[in-house]
Amino acid sequence: MSAPIGVFDSGVGGLxxxxxxxxxxxxxxxxxxADSGYVPYGEKPPEMIRERSLRIAEFLIEQGxxxxxxxxxxxxxxxxxxxxxxxxxPIIGMEPAVKPAAAATRNGKVGVLATTGxxxxxxxxxxxxxxxxxxxxxTQPCPGLVECVEQGDLQGAQVRAxxxxxxxxxxxxxxxxxxxxxxxxxxxKPVLRDMLPPDVQLIDTGEAVAxxxxxxxxxxxxxxxxxxxxxxxxxxxxxxxxxxxxxxLWGRPGAVAKLPV
Length: 261
Ligand code: DGL
What we know:
- The protein is α/β, with parallel strands linked by helices.
- The chain has 2 domains: 5-94 and 206-258, Rossmann fold (3-Layer(aba) Sandwich); 98-203, Rossmann fold (3-Layer(aba) Sandwich).
- The chain has 11 helices and 10 strands.
- The two termini are 26 Å apart.
């Protein structure tokens, strides 16, 4: 049996990445940690996120992980460098899709929905510097959205009101392309589609991250060769709450264990 791939996020948002990994690499065994006891990362100091990311990475490696995916833009901004210098294995992070959005926009105006932590990070500033020189970028922090998704509220009145408030300034600015720069937000696409003009494009990075992981593992000839992979879940929050939202966010039920770190 091949060693698993460890995936984690501040909560259940990373399931939007996990489903792309599963789709692309159904033979791989997957381990998923939701750090829901500490969610939202987006409003927390980077030192705390680094500390949590190190603890979770150690846990996943103890479970046998041969590669790690930070299915979280905020944790990548705060902790990917430290993880890469600490652990010798493929470590895939993710960042808002500025490069593809700059290529996709027709009017040169791109909006970024992300957490406060991501938008304030040095990594994000460097990303804009590198890929957004020829476009105008409007950023919008979105406190509160992550908590709605954690509760499984993907289309209720509260999440709609928040989204309306956050996309309004971006629409006023004339953005024709919006980046979903947090892994919780792809679950809100159906509601966003409802409220946005049809020509506004929504861009997220789950699939690109899955492809990058596949390429990295393939380089070393380390892709699982046969069988159907197993998926295991842990939460540092309430495992029952996560088990309750799995059918909606993951598409099927699953057992969730309490994360011991
Ligand atoms: N899902 C995370 C991200 O991609 C962070 C959400 C949060 O905990 O604030 O940024």
